[in-house]
């Protein structure tokens, strides 16, 4: 473990600017070593952060943060930024409960200008900040750092289209590493490949300006002519770029691991009178061989062995089971299509993408397009299944209503990472999908507890439903299954003695916690019966009913259950325990469920308190 002598001495960008050029290589080495050390223990986004070390150092040497502003797209490449802005001493707490976030947070530091966590937002946010500065007479610079993967999101192009008419001090840094989470697809990555030529335009321009300045009498006139005709001159070098067409001055490609070249490029960009796009080429995972060889695997990773790069724990989870089931169904059904938004590996579709290439579609980071594209497939008799993380599905709410439900197109959503996901914090918790889908007429939601239920739900949603259907499942694998449980049903299951006063209602993985809570309560003489679906008539005969829900209370299933229960002869007490009007901060899944009283111990505590149970000695 390094002593990090140089890195530990940096408490602000001022300290970075004071470093001699020969010290910068050591600084970058220490930054990478520190990131690898901490992420190997805490988990996190490693390969994107390793790729932007020199870029971040150059930014902090070229601009005056926090007077100048920088917005990191997604923010999963902001670790170096955190280390250079006074958070080295806290970096060991990265992604831990009450520690620093894995993403930029305004409440965490004055150097974090905008909270991010989802992709393609940086140019919009930075452009808003730049305009606010202009309105208040502030002439400082505003920079958006966006990856080529995020550039496949439509919001980024809406912002580029709007920002092209801006006057000055607005710079977009395009970090081109040829990757998002999975390998990039589509026309934009292909286009960027065509402009990744030798970055000699800026060098030619700088040399030309210096030569002209030395010519007596006419030198300044020629410089003025050059400035006025620079677009024509650059077209001779580059032809014309897409970004020039949008109104940006394009520079690049620049070697993203050459600090001197980056600083020179920033100097040129700062002198432009209009918006600038600086195209920087980097290597994702730079400096750590396992991450360079497998950048997708190390994009977001749990604990791993530093020497080998091997994960310290791995097990078969719901994502893998989903992918396996999709392959099995596609073997006999050529109408099944799988769609992903740049998440083939994360959603378990890697094997499907290889075995059924014609029926696999990676649309890039474009969830809105994915839904409507799937509806187009469905309108011609195909059976599209869109695999997506719960937190990213939020972007497609309008398409789910307008194109799927209202258009009566049968599309299936495989909602991965449903419920609490843990260390990535508020931006990634999958707790809104049920409330969101529950508000859409005709939608059907499946939330299995075990792999058996996932297989049944996926098959049922594809072949028995005719409209918008969703199968939601958590991060990780199966949890506790009590003895004598039997087989998981597609609609609901009951477990326990029905001839008691108390009932627990829940769905998804909370069923496992409810079963343990039932056993814990029985040890204290309190008998309850957990089930996992809207068996309202069955529930109406109980004295007390508790609905535990791993999602937002407003608009959730528990509220619907309450309304339906009111239509029965139920005369008992109905209790809801869900996430009530708040965001869930970063912490482990187990810590979050315990805090929300949605684990076995929490359920036990809630029930005992509600019935006035007193401990006896």
Describe the structure.
By secondary structure, this protein is an alpha/beta fold. It folds into three domains: 5-293, Thiamin diphosphate (ThDP)-binding fold, Pyr/PP domains (Rossmann fold, 3-Layer(aba) Sandwich); 318-472, Thiamin diphosphate (ThDP)-binding fold, Pyr/PP domains (Rossmann fold); 502-610, Rossmann fold. It has 27 helices and 15 strands. The protein has a six-stranded parallel beta sheet, sandwiched between helices. A five-stranded parallel beta sheet has the order 1-2-3-5-4, with helices on both faces. Strand 6 (336-340), helix 17 and strand 7 form a beta-alpha-beta unit. The longest helix has 22 residues, at 21-42.
Task: Kindly estimate the percentage of residues that lie in beta strands according to DSSP.
Answer: 5-15%
The mean pLDDT is 88
Known CATH architecture of the largest domain: 3-Layer(aba) Sandwich
- Overall structural class, as computed from helix and strand content, comes to alpha/beta
What is the molecular shape? Answer: globular
Low-confidence stretches: 195-201, 235-239
Question: What is the CATH topology assignment of the largest domain?
Answer: Rossmann fold
CATH superfamily of the largest domain: Thiamin diphosphate (ThDP)-binding fold, Pyr/PP domains
Largest sheet: 6 strands, parallel
- Strand arrangement across the biggest beta sheet: 7-6-8-9-11-10
